[in-house]
Amino acid sequence: GAVVSQHPSRVICKSGTSVKIECRSLDFQATTMFWYRQFPKKSLMLMATSNEGSKATYEQGVEKDKFLINHASLTLSTLTVTSAHPEDSSFYICSARTLGGSSYEQYFGPGTRLTVT
Amino acid sequence: SQQGEEDPQALSIQEGENATMNCSYKTSINNLQWYRQNSGRGLVHLILIRSNEREKHSGRLRVTLDTSKKSSSLLITASRAADTASYFCATAPMDSSYKLIFGSGTRLLVRP
Lengths: 117, 112
What we know:
The complex is a heterodimer of chains A (117) and B (112). Helices cover 0% and strands 54% of the residues of chain A. Chain A is mainly β and 117 residues long. Chain B contains no helices and 11 strands. Classes of the chains: A mainly beta (117), B mainly beta (112).
């Protein structure tokens, strides 16, 4: 099956620093990748939709200057949390949709737990 | 809120019993999907039901969809302790670019 990886799986950073999270589709090409945020015991909130070679589309209320998304290739998207603050601590999950797929199915990465101290 | 609602929020059952989770949503959809998430992990796709389908089965899973009521249910039969996880429904809105809107989730505990 389609595999999506995320790196790192956990990261702790100090307030004010920036953190980059990578999302890779390992055995397929992904035209579209999605970034979600999940608070403890809560559901996934879609942050942005990332299409290869174009600017990401952000959901309402998500600061695009705060959460920088780059989808440079068909297998890699990155999320950079800039000038991180403790309230940015969360579980970040990416997903990918296969190239040319007719299904709406998304393949999810294992998530990255960000803790900002 | 962009999210749908799921109930119950939490469910505790004995191994061997059936577990039923319900999901309601707000917009017209292309399809509805159910996902499973083990604690602190990513999501695993379980089943997809299209808007023109009413019921679908996959192993011990049975999903129903009622578009007139904008609701769906997931039934897990003969539950096992390994089924313990959070379960989320996700809808693909009709006008979306393949994005998914997740429900609030049901935390299922199957006691051995």
